[in-house]
Amino acid sequence: MKKLILLLFVITAVTAQAQDAEEQPQGWSNGGIFQLLFNQSAFNAEWQGGGTSSLAGNLGLNYDINYLMDRTSWDTKIIAEYGITRQDGDEFTRKTNDRLELNTVYGYKIAEDSAWSYSFFLNALTQFTKGYNFGEDEDGNVTRTERTNFLSPGYFQAGPGMLYKKGDNLSVNIAPATARLIVVDGQFTDGPDYVDGAYFGVDAGETTRFELGASINALYNFQIAENVRMDNVLLLYSNYLDKPGNIDINYSTNINMKINEWLSANLIFQAIYDDNAVGAFQIREVFGLGLNYKLGDAREVQ
């Protein structure tokens, strides 16, 4: 899985570089896409084919704020997503999506005509609301146990590095001295039975974990076909202080298929590997048909 994600990144990045030959405007620019995806199914009591009535919705915001003036650039991306689903007969509504992320990179070109810049980046990642583990009690009733919350965990990364930027379709920031702070709620690490590192790597009785390592943050966009565009974010991190060979991976892609000015189909895919959370890949996929609204100077799906 790790090799597949990295291969996809390389292929897409090379393609994006080849496509992007347009000149970027000077000064401030901003824009993005707001999307509402909706899914519903219903079955009456006489329906013989099987099925459960359900209702689901997903809100998404992908917004960019950019500054370019001579050799100076400052690019910021905000990603906010939230989705829920409710099936007939379920006691609890469940989340299908919950993400709040900020990526910002400041760059100063090493030469006027160079694609490389000296850089400093900041990345922040968390969620909006509580997350639960679901199970059953001895009577067969569904139970839920709080597992995560806003800023539990919260990931903050920052550090100097080198930025490679080709137009506004491709940027790769390499930071060999990245500080990372993991923030959690103390309720999850308290108690005599808690094992150090069991909750996102944080020790018993603590609310933070500090790491120092190397990171690669990449943003790239790719026009797959007419009216179909793919936006990608790839975050790689290696902690020098603990198991540097275990590279954390956070890859997400958003494929937007434009139907008309207001309607679109949207596919969101995300794969996360972080052995402080779980020693396996976490996979999330959301597909839906919904409404989209252009904000500011967002790039159109052609």
From TrEMBL:
Pfam families the UniProt entry points to: DUF3078 (PF11276)
InterPro entries, sorted: DUF3078
Entry keyword set: Signal
Signal sequence coordinates: 1-18
Protein name: DUF3078 domain-containing protein
